[in-house]
Automatic annotation (TrEMBL):
PANTHER family for the chain: EID1-LIKE F-BOX PROTEIN 2 (PTHR31348:SF16), EID1-LIKE F-BOX PROTEIN 2-RELATED (PTHR31348)
Listed name of the protein: EID1-like F-box protein 2
Family annotation (InterPro entries): EID1-like, F-box-like_dom_sf
Length: 250
């Protein structure tokens, strides 16, 4: 069921929500009892701006903490109570594979975006996607590839992956991208927060270790990083027998 989002008010006198609506505390307990169900949070966000603000400020934050507690604790270990790009954007990144539309970020690749039941994000895997000169300072969490079998045509199976930088605004990767004069993608934006995107392929900042970590052909990997530190990419996966024999490159 698709519900149209409403932006009538912040509980003005004409808002229907003021006639006996639940308090923040009750809504918090209700969604907590439902194990921070993202469908419930998204539906509440559509009621009016008051509910939408509550979801962005509190409910999506608790959803992220419940879904990936160790990762969230690390992302906030610098003392910040927020994350780059909003909690809602991060919540979407945790459960949504962006896919690719034909003529979009990944040229002729056409795979519809979809929700995923569960995805593992790893800080150790993220190191393999960082240029060697950034690995001692930057922290990146990257998901296991979301496999799309027989979607790569004659090239083979596709794998979509996504990730999030810790404190991207202070990262060496961002400084390198700026120093290299890397241009933003002219038309596409981040599917999670709508921010502009840098191409790591254009910047020549994709290390060989990324293909080994993914079990993919080295020349098939492409990924982007947005201004808020969200990462999304695609690769062509090696046949299982070949990827099992791939050695890790540091």
């Amino acid at each position: 069921m698709i519900i149209a989002k409403q932006y009538r008010c912040v509980h003005s006198a004409t808002c229907h929500c003021t006639k006996g609506h639940l308090s923040e505390e009750v809504l918090f307990l209700m969604v907590q009892h439902l194990n921070w169900n993202p469908n419930v949070i998204a539906t509440l966000s559509c009621v009016c701006k008051w509910f939408d603000d509550l979801a962005k400020r509190l409910l999506w934050k608790e959803f992220c903490r419940a879904r990936a507690p160790k990762m969230m604790s690390d992302l906030q270990s610098s003392g910040s109570h927020s994350v780059d790009g909003s909690w809602r954007a991060l919540g979407k990144l945790l459960i949504y594979c962006s896919g690719s539309s034909k003529g979009g970020l990944f040229s002729d690749v056409h795979v519809p975006g979809h929700f995923v039941h569960r995805t593992r994000f790893s800080r150790t895997s993220g190191r393999s996607f960082l240029p060697p000169q950034c690995r001692n300072d930057d922290i990146l969490y990257v998901s296991d590839p979301c496999e799309h079998l027989d979607q790569g045509g004659e090239d083979g199976d596709l794998g979509f992956f996504r990730g999030i930088f810790k404190s991207f605004s202070m990262s060496k990767v961002r400084k390198l991208l700026i120093r290299k004069g890397t241009s933003f993608h002219p038309t596409e934006v981040c599917p999670y927060c709508k921010a502009k995107l840098w191409s790591m392929l254009q910047a020549r900042m994709i290390p060989q270790s990324a293909s080994c970590r993914l079990g993919a052909y080295e020349d098939s990997i492409e990924y982007y990083v947005c201004l808020n530190g969200h990462m999304l990419g695609v690769c062509t996966l090696l046949p299982l027998s070949d990827s099992e024999g791939a050695s890790e490159v540091q």
